[in-house]
Amino acid sequence: MSASGSRVAVIAAGMTRWGRRAATFRDLIAEAGKATFDNNPNIKPADINSFIISTVYPERSAFQGHPAPLAAEWCGVRPNEFHCRVENQCGSGTTAIRTAYAAIKAGLTDMVMIVGAEKVLIPSHQEVFLNAMAGCDREWESCFGVTPPPLFAMVAQAHMKSYGTTE
């Protein structure tokens, strides 16, 4: 994203290949970063002032805490204004975009690179539910085996009951 006066725009985008594969958390981030730079050859790594990684539970699924500065490095960028991590379950990507937009509009930065990554099926496929529960409130939700999809469904049902909305 880049600002020109009061305007904010997405000026490049990239994506990894989806599916189960041997790629590591680092591989996915580097691949997305390369795809983004390939998408717009007018943007160079040196142009990136700030960096946001959107990821929910890399400490559990990728055994990587404090991923923002590492992810920036894996993308070949050295942000000189800020780097950070955002997490908001399935809304993490949107939260990253809104955070970048707000930082640009506030004049805190001019060019933000956002990367979203999650390595879901590790350390083993059987642990995917444990990983998902790590993103929930341990004392109120995950202690009962609840993961995000049922939580979202309960919120939707409560909204329908309270406001009369339909599916």
Structural summary, described in words:
By secondary structure, this protein is α/β, with parallel strands linked by helices. It folds into 2 domains: 2-122, Thiolase/Chalcone synthase (Peroxisomal Thiolase, Chain A, domain 1, 3-Layer(aba) Sandwich), CATH 3.40.47.10; 136-167, no CATH class. It has 6 helices and 5 strands, in the order E-E-H-E-H-H-E-H-E-H-H. The chain has helices at residues 25-39, 58-61, 67-74, 92-105, 128-133, 148-163, and strands at residues 2-4, 7-9, 50-54, 82-86, 112-116. The strands form 2 sheets. The protein has a 3-stranded parallel sheet with strand order 4-3-5, sandwiched between helices. A two-stranded antiparallel ribbon has the order 1-2. Strand 1 and strand 2 form a beta hairpin. The protein is globular.
Number of domains: 2
Alpha-carbon Rg, integer = 18 Å
Strand order of the largest sheet: 4-3-5
Q: What oligomeric assembly is this protein in?
A: single chain
**CATH architectural type of the largest domain:** 3-Layer(aba) Sandwich
Structural class: alpha/beta
Low-confidence stretches: none
Strands, total number: 5
| Series of H and E elements | EEHEHHEHEHH
Biggest sheet, in brief? 3 strands, parallel
Shape, please?
Answer: globular
What is the class of the largest domain in the CATH system?
A: Alpha Beta
